[in-house]
Every structure is written in C-alpha cells, then in structure tokens.
Amino acid sequence: MPSPTSRMRWLRAKLYSVRNGTGAAVLPPNISRIALSFNYKSNNGHMGPRKFFRECLPRLKYHNPEVDMIVTRKDALEGPATLTIHFSDVPVDNKLQFKKKQPTTPVVRETISTIDIDMLNRYPDDIMAELVQKTSATLYSEPPRPQELEEEAEYLAAKRENELKEKYKLQRADRRTGKEDQLKGAILA
Amino acid sequence: MASSISICRACLTRPSTLVGGAPRLLRPTSDIHRLLPAISTVPSLIATSAFSTTSSLPAGGGAVNRAKLKSSKLKQVKKKKPKTHFKIWNHAELPKYALTDVMRYIRAFEVGNDVRQAKYDLAVKIYTQKNGPAVKSRIQLPKAVNTDIRICVFADGKKADAAREAGAVVVGTKDVWEQIKEGVINFDRVICASDVFQEFQKTGLGRVLGPRGMMPSPRTGTVVTNPAAIISAMIGASDYRERQGVVRIAIGQLGFSPDELRDNIKVFMDQLAKDLARIEDFDKRINEVVLSSTHSPAFSLSGEFRNIGREEDLEITPEVVEGAAAAEEAPAAATL
C-alpha cells in the first residue's frame, strides 16, 4: 500500500477537480435522470460527447447524487450523439428522510417529459452551457478558503520552490564536478 | 568502460581515424602514441590490437576502485538492521472521510460504469511481522458481492440431484469431464463428491483445471461427501487473505446503498479482528482502513457513517471537515 502522505497529496487534487470546474452545477429536484448516448470511437464528431462524459459528468454526479446518469455507447462510427434529460415529479424532501433514518429504497420515478440536447460536433463547455440553460441549474463554486489557509498554502508553495531550486543547484554542481573529474582522469591517463 | 576498446583514452579519438589520418595521430601530449612510433606503417589490424592493450591499463585501475566501492557498500548494508515488520505510517493528522462522503465521491468517479461490475474494495493495513502466520479466511457477507458464481459438481445419483437443487449449474461425472476436455468450461468453481474423486483423478483433468485454480482437492475443502451442503456457503462467500501486510476484499457492488455497505464493512471488520486475535504469539493490529473502488482513488475511512452536521450544508470547506474527522478518529478505524 502506498504511504498515506503520497496518497493524500494526489487525492486532494483529484477531489478538488471533481468538485470544481465545468459541469459543477446543482440541478433542480424535478430532474430524475440524465442519459447520454454516443459512440466508443471519436470519429464524426463524437469527441466532444466523450470529453463531456469523462470530465463533466463526474462533477455533475457529485453535485447531484440522487440523479441517475446512464451512459450507453455504441460500436458504430457514425450516428447521433444525444443527451436526454428526464423530468419527473418533485420527490418527497430527501432531507426529511435522512433525519428519520428511514431505509432509502431506490424509487423509480416516472418521467413526465424529456428534453434532448444534440452533442454532435460540440465542445464539452458548449454542451454544459446548454444543459444549464435548459434545466435552469445553479452553478456551483467553492466557497473561498479562509485567510489563514490561504497564507499557509502560499508559504508552503514558496518553501517548496526554494527547496527545489537548492536541489537543482546542488545537482548541477555535482554534475559539473563529475565531468571535470572525468576529464582530468582522461588527461592523466 | 566499454568504449575503451574503440576509443583511445589518451587523446579521445578512435583508433581507426588514427590509423587513417596521419597528421592527427602523433600528438606530443599523449605518451601512448609516443610509445608506438611506427603506427602509420603498421597494418590496421595490429594497430587496433595495440590500442586495445594500451587502453586496458587505465581500465584495470578503474576496476579496482569499483571493487573497493562494492565491498564498502556491502559493509554498509550489513550494518543496517533487517526490518522485521512491514512498514506502517503515522496517519493521525491526515484527512479521513466518513462513509457516506466517500460513497458520494466514488459514485461520482464511477459515473457511467456498470453498477454490477464495478466493486467497492476494502484494504486493511495491518501492523504485522514479515514472517509468521498470515490471515486467510472466508466470509459470508450480509449482502453478497459475487452473486453470479457458477458452480460445477462432480457427483452422480442422489447427490447430483441434491446439488442441482442447491444451485449448482453443471452437475455430472463422465459427460461433464468429456466436455471439459473439449474445452467447454462455463463455471467458476468445482466441487467433487468424495466417492467419485478417485475416478476423477484418473481422467487427468488437472492439466485443464489446475491452471484455472479449479482443481478440487481435499486440502482446499472442495472434495466432500455431501456437495450440496457447501454450495450455499460457496455462493456469496468471499475469500480474503493477508498479502504484504494488507488484507484486501471486494466489499460491495457499486449499486449498494450506504446501509448495505456499512453492514458489510462492519461484519468484515468484526471477523477480521477475531482472526487477528486468534493468531497467538504474534502482535497484529489494524493500522488503517481504506475504501476504494475499481476506478476511483482510495479514501481513508474515519469510522463514522455520516459526518455530523454534514447533511445540512454540503458546501462545507473540505479542510474543516478533514480536520474534524482526523481529530475525532485519530486511532485506526477499528470502531467501524
């Protein structure tokens, strides 16, 4: 098992990137499901949908854990790439359920209406913008860090940079002396 | 130096160029060339051989130094104490996460993957000696992870019927063996009734089943008098063992609810604690519990189910939450 420190450094960056960025938006509660359908290969305009799936969908899922997100991919080289949003009734307040600690059973919510978004030949940002506009979702942004943490982070970054500088300086010096030694040895021999 | 044969160490030129180019060859600085006065007249073969012998002189000196270095390194290694235990780390100040938070992150990382194929993995780091007995056992989780295990039973008569009722997919003796010889294997586990075991051994199917880890043998408990009895235990049971000081197990499917996953983890940790306690004379302790999944990063568990006050406002800064969790659950998550 890798050491906890090395794991955590990597993990923090990962978690930050899944909370923030394109796709970090809270959907309204009347959306029950988002279904993507595109190809495995990126030919003929299926690159954007794939990028959307890889980059934006995890963020969307993180901020909307209750919404089903279904991805179907085909082996074809052509064809449509669509994102379908399923609307349904507003469910019973989830927070109340949490407080009573009822066993939450996965309830299949019936879809009343759907909206399609064409993803063909589009960038992920573009697709996300249309999704936000059509669902009237609220974009998420991380609350700013407290002043102390900000200062600490700056101090740590500066420290790390200095340490690296020192390290490289030493490495360079070592290399130079090594080369000189080699030359000297060659001449003497 | 491997290049010493083709390059003259004195003037750093190739012997071939030396032989060919007469003006470059006699440099007053290099002693070696002075020792070889008639190079331009000597045939090329002899010339190269002459260079190879001269260059071996300094190379020999280098070899001696290297040998010295090697011996000194060996001495240093000998001084070091051998490590008896697997390395453990102090992770008290590092962030730990409550189960529901971890599940939310993991579900986000696993979005779009099949909820039946992707699994939650639990890794338990153990403080233990490198040699000595290791934990190896089998557990029946409250909600089974591998529900689609296909079992084959070698038996005939009443036992075969009983096995079929218990849930075996393939049942039989000679006809099944012939199928296996032809390469038709559509099962994951094999159980053999003890009365047909001798007959089975004569078929020489070990070459087919052995590499797949499906060869029945009395030592692993797959040759029994009553196969039907252990089928139910085999379906839904999962094996786990300690490797390199870590016990790993698939603890749940991605579609499990937090409650189901918590129950599975609880049962597993209880049994693991008992397993560790059972090994006498060896100090074995749980150091860290880490939950990950097939495509997600690993999270150190704090031992809580839900972060207190977390469900009210989900936009708490992570630093605050991490600090609180670490402070509350500084010792390992044995409280799970």
UniProtKB/TrEMBL annotation, chain A:
UniProt xrefs under InterPro entries: Ribosomal_mL43/mS25/NADH_DH, Ribosomal_mS25/mL61, Thioredoxin-like_sf
Origin superkingdom: Eukaryota
Listed GO MF terms: structural constituent of ribosome
Broad class of where this protein is predominantly found: mitochondrion
GO cellular component terms, semicolon-separated: mitochondrion; ribonucleoprotein complex; ribosome
SUPFAM superfamilies registered for this protein in UniProt: Thioredoxin-like
Skewed-composition ranges (Basic and acidic residues): 170-183
Protein name: Ribosomal protein/NADH dehydrogenase domain-containing protein
Highest classification ranks of the organism: Eukaryota, Fungi, Dikarya, Ascomycota, Pezizomycotina
From TrEMBL, chain B:
Pfam families given in the database record: Ribosomal_L1
InterPro entries assigned: Ribosomal_uL1-like, Ribosomal_uL1/biogenesis, Ribosomal_uL1_3-a/b-sand
CDD domains, A to Z: Ribosomal_L1
GO CC terms in record: mitochondrial large ribosomal subunit
GO MF entries: structural constituent of ribosome
Gene3D superfamilies linked to this entry: 3.30.190.20, 3.40.50.790
SUPFAM superfamilies xref list: Ribosomal protein L1 (SSF56808)
Keywords: Ribonucleoprotein, Ribosomal protein
Family to which this protein belongs: Belongs to the universal ribosomal protein uL1 family.
Designated name of the protein: Mitochondrial 54S ribosomal protein mrpl1
Annotated organism of origin: Arthrobotrys oligospora (strain ATCC 24927 / CBS 115.81 / DSM 1491)
